[in-house]
Design goal:
Elements lengths: L1 E8 L2 E8 L3 E2 L23 E5 L3 H21 L14 H4 L3 H11 L11 H12 L15 E6 L21 E9 L21 E3 L5 E3 L2 E3 L4 E4 L4 E3 L8 E5 L17 E9 L4
Parallel strand pairs: 1-11
Antiparallel strand pairs: 1-2, 3-7, 4-12, 5-13, 6-12, 6-13, 7-10, 8-9
Length: 277
């Protein structure tokens, strides 16, 4: 069944078509209210916060590593770019079709810590120190680490639908980390719904996992179409370079429409589970 997903981002309306079967959930709250990764934070009720992630030199090292991974993915798909002069914000000038973009992100959305010339576990320790829990990059259920480079071309549907990562079993007990890499600003950064991790399931209209299709792409995460309060109203916290957006896996987020006219947005998504004792 095709429906129109209508949302507001910073009070500006957006809409896109979604195919899927939608249902209201059970009267239960999935967010664990004791001993979850946000339990020790003063901002737990909001469900998200911006924190300092690393020093500038470390950021530049990670940014360079992300750039190299994208360049390799482009070259794998026979797109010739100059390693020295290529600017991540110009990605859309080289990748001009959805088909080619999908081939590139098939590589960049399934990465592991070993793919980076940067110690990702340093970030797990950094954020673990902030949250008061030991974190790891290793996801037990997946038997590996899992990192995604998100690439959003300007004026495109290179987006996830509004969703909760926590609907997927392997993301139930993690901290979500969103890192701006290039082209991230008030027109392109990740939108969230404050306090939405506290909304019970019977107030959410959504699909099953792998049950939503947007622009021909099927998504692992269920699409949240609306809540009992009506249209989803999102805001962009907009972390700066060297900062990170931390949030609960049960916080509604996504639909990161890139409103910039001529800038590709590149970001990094990390998910760190609590270390098992």
């Amino acid at each position: 069944m095709e429906k129109i997903c209508k949302i507001f981002i910073d009070n500006k309306p957006f809409e896109f078509k979604v195919e899927g079967e939608f249902f209201w959930g059970k009267p239960e709250l999935l967010y664990p209210q004791k001993d979850n990764v946000l339990s020790k934070m003063s901002w737990e009720n909001e469900g998200f916060n911006i924190v300092e992630a690393f020093e500038e030199l470390d950021f530049l090292k990670l940014q360079a590593s992300v750039k190299n991974i994208i360049i390799d993915a482009l070259k794998t798909n026979n797109v010739a770019v100059d390693n020295e002069t290529f600017d991540l914000k110009d990605y859309h000038k080289f990748v001009t079709t959805d088909a080619l973009h999908n081939q590139v992100i098939a590589i960049t959305r399934n990465l592991e810590t070993s793919d980076f010339d940067f110690d990702i576990d340093l970030l797990a320790k950094r954020f673990g120190d902030i949250l008061g829990y030991q974190l790891t990059s290793y996801v037990e259920e997946l038997k590996k680490s899992h990192i995604q480079i998100r690439i959003s071309r300007p004026q495109s549907l290179d987006i996830n639908p509004p969703h909760r990562d926590g609907y997927l079993s392997y993301w139930e007990d993690i901290i979500n980390v969103w890192l701006p890499i290039a082209g991230c600003n008030e027109k392109s950064s990740l939108p969230v719904v404050a306090k939405s991790h506290l909304i019970p399931e019977n107030e959410i209209l959504r699909t099953e996992s792998k049950g939503a299709k947007i622009n021909g792409n099927i998504y692992y995460v269920p699409c949240i179409l609306e809540t009992k309060s009506g249209v989803i109203k999102m805001t962009r916290p907009n972390p700066m370079e060297s900062e990170a957006l931390l949030f609960s896996p049960f916080l509604i987020h996504g639909a990161a429409v890139n409103e910039n006219e001529d800038i590709t947005r590149v970001s990094l998504e990390l998910r760190f589970p609590k270390q098992k004792n």
